[in-house]
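Z., the sequence and structure:
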Amino acid sequence: MKIKLTFFIALIYSVSMTAQDSFEAAVYHSAEDSLQYRIQYPLNYDETKEYPLILFLHGAGERGSDNTSQLTHGAKVFATTGNRNAFPAIVIFPQCPANSYWANVDVDRSTYPIGITFHPEKKPTPHLKMAVELVDSFIKKGKVDTSRVYVAGLSMGGMGTYEIVQRNPKMFAAAIAICGAGSTSEVNNYATQTPFWVIHGAEDNVVNPVYSLQMAQALLEAGAKPRVTVYEHANHNSWDSAFAEPDFLQWLFSHTKQN
Protein backbone atom coordinates (compact mmCIF):
# COMPACT_ATOMS: atom_id res chain seq x y z
CA MET A 1 0.00 0.00 0.00
CA LYS A 2 2.84 2.39 0.87
CA ILE A 3 4.51 1.72 -2.47
CA LYS A 4 1.27 2.38 -4.34
CA LEU A 5 0.65 5.60 -2.38
CA THR A 6 4.22 6.80 -3.02
CA PHE A 7 3.82 6.06 -6.72
CA PHE A 8 0.49 7.93 -6.81
CA ILE A 9 1.99 11.00 -5.14
CA ALA A 10 4.96 10.88 -7.50
CA LEU A 11 2.60 10.64 -10.46
CA ILE A 12 0.63 13.71 -9.34
CA TYR A 13 3.89 15.62 -8.79
CA SER A 14 5.14 14.57 -12.23
CA VAL A 15 1.96 15.72 -13.98
CA SER A 16 2.02 19.01 -12.06
CA MET A 17 5.66 19.65 -12.98
CA THR A 18 4.97 18.81 -16.63
CA ALA A 19 2.17 21.37 -16.72
CA GLN A 20 4.30 23.99 -15.02
CA ASP A 21 7.36 23.30 -17.14
CA SER A 22 5.48 23.70 -20.43
CA PHE A 23 4.52 27.26 -19.45
CA GLU A 24 7.30 29.82 -19.75
CA ALA A 25 7.48 32.68 -17.22
CA ALA A 26 7.23 36.20 -18.62
CA VAL A 27 6.25 39.74 -17.64
CA TYR A 28 4.21 42.30 -19.54
CA HIS A 29 5.12 45.92 -18.82
CA SER A 30 2.66 48.77 -19.31
CA ALA A 31 3.29 52.47 -18.82
CA GLU A 32 2.05 52.30 -15.21
CA ASP A 33 2.53 48.74 -13.97
CA SER A 34 3.44 45.20 -14.91
CA LEU A 35 1.61 41.89 -15.24
CA GLN A 36 3.31 38.56 -14.67
CA TYR A 37 2.15 35.68 -16.82
CA ARG A 38 2.91 32.17 -17.95
CA ILE A 39 2.71 31.25 -21.60
CA GLN A 40 2.60 27.94 -23.42
CA TYR A 41 3.36 27.86 -27.12
CA PRO A 42 2.11 25.10 -29.43
CA LEU A 43 4.24 22.03 -29.94
CA ASN A 44 6.54 22.55 -32.92
CA TYR A 45 5.77 26.25 -32.76
CA ASP A 46 6.23 28.04 -36.08
CA GLU A 47 6.77 31.79 -35.66
CA THR A 48 5.60 32.42 -39.22
CA LYS A 49 2.12 31.05 -38.50
CA GLU A 50 -0.87 32.52 -36.72
CA TYR A 51 -2.39 30.44 -33.91
CA PRO A 52 -5.53 30.53 -31.78
CA LEU A 53 -4.97 32.21 -28.41
CA ILE A 54 -6.55 31.27 -25.08
CA LEU A 55 -6.50 33.64 -22.11
CA PHE A 56 -7.19 31.95 -18.77
CA LEU A 57 -8.11 34.00 -15.69
CA HIS A 58 -7.48 32.33 -12.32
CA GLY A 59 -9.42 32.67 -9.08
CA ALA A 60 -8.80 34.88 -6.04
CA GLY A 61 -6.92 32.15 -4.20
CA GLU A 62 -4.20 32.09 -6.85
CA ARG A 63 -3.40 35.79 -6.70
CA GLY A 64 0.14 36.76 -5.79
CA SER A 65 3.56 37.52 -7.19
CA ASP A 66 5.18 34.10 -7.61
CA ASN A 67 4.11 33.78 -11.28
CA THR A 68 3.28 30.14 -10.62
CA SER A 69 0.12 29.85 -8.49
CA GLN A 70 -2.12 30.82 -11.40
CA LEU A 71 -1.31 27.43 -12.96
CA THR A 72 -2.86 25.55 -10.00
CA HIS A 73 -6.21 25.00 -11.72
CA GLY A 74 -6.58 24.47 -15.45
CA ALA A 75 -3.00 24.33 -16.69
CA LYS A 76 -2.97 20.53 -16.90
CA VAL A 77 -5.85 20.61 -19.39
CA PHE A 78 -3.78 22.66 -21.80
CA ALA A 79 -0.44 20.95 -21.09
CA THR A 80 -1.32 17.35 -21.99
CA THR A 81 0.37 16.20 -25.17
CA GLY A 82 -2.91 14.97 -26.60
CA ASN A 83 -4.63 18.32 -26.20
CA ARG A 84 -1.59 20.23 -27.46
CA ASN A 85 -1.60 18.08 -30.59
CA ALA A 86 -5.34 18.31 -31.10
CA PHE A 87 -5.69 22.01 -30.26
CA PRO A 88 -2.45 23.88 -31.04
CA ALA A 89 -2.71 27.32 -29.49
CA ILE A 90 -0.92 30.03 -27.57
CA VAL A 91 -2.16 29.73 -23.97
CA ILE A 92 -1.67 32.60 -21.52
CA PHE A 93 -2.19 32.47 -17.74
CA PRO A 94 -1.67 35.97 -16.29
CA GLN A 95 -1.37 36.40 -12.52
CA CYS A 96 -3.38 39.03 -10.68
CA PRO A 97 -1.55 40.53 -7.65
CA ALA A 98 -2.95 39.91 -4.17
CA ASN A 99 -4.15 43.50 -3.82
CA SER A 100 -6.04 43.54 -7.11
CA TYR A 101 -8.98 41.82 -8.82
CA TRP A 102 -9.88 40.87 -12.39
CA ALA A 103 -13.35 42.45 -12.25
CA ASN A 104 -14.30 45.88 -10.99
CA VAL A 105 -16.54 44.70 -8.17
CA ASP A 106 -17.07 45.17 -4.46
CA VAL A 107 -16.98 41.86 -2.62
CA ASP A 108 -18.59 41.47 0.79
CA ARG A 109 -17.09 38.47 2.57
CA SER A 110 -18.91 39.07 5.86
CA THR A 111 -21.44 36.42 4.84
CA TYR A 112 -21.38 33.37 2.61
CA PRO A 113 -22.18 33.10 -0.22
CA ILE A 114 -20.31 36.36 -0.73
CA GLY A 115 -22.09 39.55 -1.75
CA ILE A 116 -21.01 41.07 -5.07
CA THR A 117 -21.67 44.56 -6.40
CA PHE A 118 -20.71 45.19 -10.01
CA HIS A 119 -19.43 48.47 -11.42
CA PRO A 120 -19.70 48.26 -15.21
CA GLU A 121 -19.78 52.07 -15.37
CA LYS A 122 -16.27 52.31 -13.93
CA LYS A 123 -12.94 51.72 -15.67
CA PRO A 124 -11.53 48.19 -15.74
CA THR A 125 -9.08 47.24 -13.03
CA PRO A 126 -5.45 47.88 -14.02
CA HIS A 127 -4.66 44.19 -14.30
CA LEU A 128 -7.68 43.31 -16.44
CA LYS A 129 -6.69 46.24 -18.66
CA MET A 130 -3.16 44.86 -18.91
CA ALA A 131 -4.48 41.38 -19.71
CA VAL A 132 -6.25 42.88 -22.72
CA GLU A 133 -3.11 44.78 -23.68
CA LEU A 134 -1.11 41.56 -23.41
CA VAL A 135 -3.44 39.77 -25.82
CA ASP A 136 -3.31 42.79 -28.14
CA SER A 137 0.49 42.71 -28.10
CA PHE A 138 0.50 39.18 -29.51
CA ILE A 139 -2.11 40.14 -32.10
CA LYS A 140 -0.04 43.11 -33.23
CA LYS A 141 2.99 40.87 -33.67
CA GLY A 142 1.02 38.77 -36.14
CA LYS A 143 1.17 35.66 -33.96
CA VAL A 144 -2.58 35.21 -33.46
CA ASP A 145 -5.51 34.07 -35.57
CA THR A 146 -7.82 36.93 -34.57
CA SER A 147 -10.91 34.90 -35.43
CA ARG A 148 -9.98 32.38 -32.74
CA VAL A 149 -9.22 34.27 -29.53
CA TYR A 150 -10.81 32.66 -26.47
CA VAL A 151 -11.15 33.41 -22.77
CA ALA A 152 -12.01 31.25 -19.78
CA GLY A 153 -11.84 31.74 -16.04
CA LEU A 154 -12.99 30.45 -12.68
CA SER A 155 -14.48 32.21 -9.64
CA MET A 156 -12.86 35.68 -9.64
CA GLY A 157 -11.64 34.74 -13.11
CA GLY A 158 -15.20 33.82 -14.08
CA MET A 159 -16.21 37.36 -13.10
CA GLY A 160 -13.26 38.63 -15.10
CA THR A 161 -14.36 36.54 -18.07
CA TYR A 162 -17.77 38.21 -18.22
CA GLU A 163 -16.21 41.63 -17.75
CA ILE A 164 -13.41 41.28 -20.28
CA VAL A 165 -15.95 40.22 -22.91
CA GLN A 166 -18.29 43.00 -21.83
CA ARG A 167 -15.53 45.58 -22.30
CA ASN A 168 -14.14 43.99 -25.50
CA PRO A 169 -17.19 42.57 -27.29
CA LYS A 170 -15.40 42.13 -30.63
CA MET A 171 -12.28 40.35 -29.33
CA PHE A 172 -13.36 36.85 -28.29
CA ALA A 173 -14.75 34.00 -30.36
CA ALA A 174 -16.06 32.15 -27.28
CA ALA A 175 -15.88 32.24 -23.48
CA ILE A 176 -16.23 29.83 -20.56
CA ALA A 177 -17.18 31.25 -17.15
CA ILE A 178 -16.84 28.79 -14.27
CA CYS A 179 -18.49 29.57 -10.90
CA GLY A 180 -18.44 33.26 -11.77
CA ALA A 181 -20.79 36.21 -11.79
CA GLY A 182 -21.38 39.25 -13.95
CA SER A 183 -23.37 42.38 -14.60
CA THR A 184 -26.62 41.51 -16.35
CA SER A 185 -27.12 45.14 -17.37
CA GLU A 186 -24.33 44.93 -19.96
CA VAL A 187 -25.21 41.60 -21.60
CA ASN A 188 -26.96 43.13 -24.61
CA ASN A 189 -23.64 44.60 -25.74
CA TYR A 190 -22.04 41.21 -26.43
CA ALA A 191 -24.64 38.44 -26.10
CA THR A 192 -24.95 37.61 -29.78
CA GLN A 193 -21.27 38.17 -30.56
CA THR A 194 -19.55 35.84 -28.08
CA PRO A 195 -20.92 32.35 -27.31
CA PHE A 196 -20.78 31.50 -23.59
CA TRP A 197 -20.56 28.26 -21.68
CA VAL A 198 -21.82 29.04 -18.16
CA ILE A 199 -20.76 26.52 -15.50
CA HIS A 200 -21.53 26.38 -11.77
CA GLY A 201 -22.00 24.02 -8.85
CA ALA A 202 -25.50 23.86 -7.36
CA GLU A 203 -24.09 23.67 -3.82
CA ASP A 204 -21.63 26.57 -4.20
CA ASN A 205 -21.50 28.38 -0.85
CA VAL A 206 -18.90 30.95 -1.97
CA VAL A 207 -20.29 32.40 -5.21
CA ASN A 208 -24.04 31.83 -5.31
CA PRO A 209 -25.00 29.75 -8.39
CA VAL A 210 -27.91 32.13 -8.87
CA TYR A 211 -25.40 34.61 -10.33
CA SER A 212 -24.64 32.22 -13.19
CA LEU A 213 -28.31 31.48 -13.73
CA GLN A 214 -29.02 35.20 -13.90
CA MET A 215 -26.28 35.64 -16.49
CA ALA A 216 -27.66 32.72 -18.49
CA GLN A 217 -31.16 34.19 -18.37
CA ALA A 218 -29.86 37.60 -19.47
CA LEU A 219 -27.98 36.01 -22.37
CA LEU A 220 -31.08 34.11 -23.46
CA GLU A 221 -33.25 37.20 -23.25
CA ALA A 222 -30.70 39.08 -25.36
CA GLY A 223 -30.98 36.49 -28.12
CA ALA A 224 -27.94 34.35 -27.30
CA LYS A 225 -27.90 30.59 -26.90
CA PRO A 226 -25.53 29.90 -24.00
CA ARG A 227 -24.52 26.43 -22.99
CA VAL A 228 -25.36 26.04 -19.30
CA THR A 229 -24.05 23.33 -16.98
CA VAL A 230 -24.96 23.04 -13.30
CA TYR A 231 -23.32 20.22 -11.36
CA GLU A 232 -25.85 18.90 -8.87
CA HIS A 233 -23.45 18.03 -6.07
CA ALA A 234 -20.55 20.44 -6.68
CA ASN A 235 -19.65 23.16 -4.21
CA HIS A 236 -17.40 26.08 -5.23
CA ASN A 237 -14.96 23.72 -6.89
CA SER A 238 -16.94 23.12 -10.04
CA TRP A 239 -13.80 23.63 -12.12
CA ASP A 240 -12.54 20.06 -11.71
CA SER A 241 -15.80 18.78 -13.18
CA ALA A 242 -15.61 21.42 -15.91
CA PHE A 243 -12.05 20.49 -16.87
CA ALA A 244 -13.11 16.83 -16.97
CA GLU A 245 -15.75 17.58 -19.61
CA PRO A 246 -14.67 15.57 -22.68
CA ASP A 247 -15.36 18.50 -25.00
CA PHE A 248 -14.06 21.34 -22.81
CA LEU A 249 -11.50 22.46 -25.37
CA GLN A 250 -13.42 21.17 -28.36
CA TRP A 251 -16.33 23.47 -27.47
CA LEU A 252 -14.04 26.51 -27.40
CA PHE A 253 -12.28 25.66 -30.63
CA SER A 254 -15.54 24.94 -32.41
CA HIS A 255 -16.24 28.68 -32.47
CA THR A 256 -14.78 31.14 -34.94
CA LYS A 257 -15.45 34.85 -34.76
CA GLN A 258 -16.95 36.40 -37.84
CA ASN A 259 -14.99 39.55 -38.69
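The longest strand covers residues 144-154. The beta strands are 24-29, 34-40, 51-57, 90-95, 105-108, 115-118, 144-154, 174-178, 196-201, 227-231.

Let me know what you think.
H.
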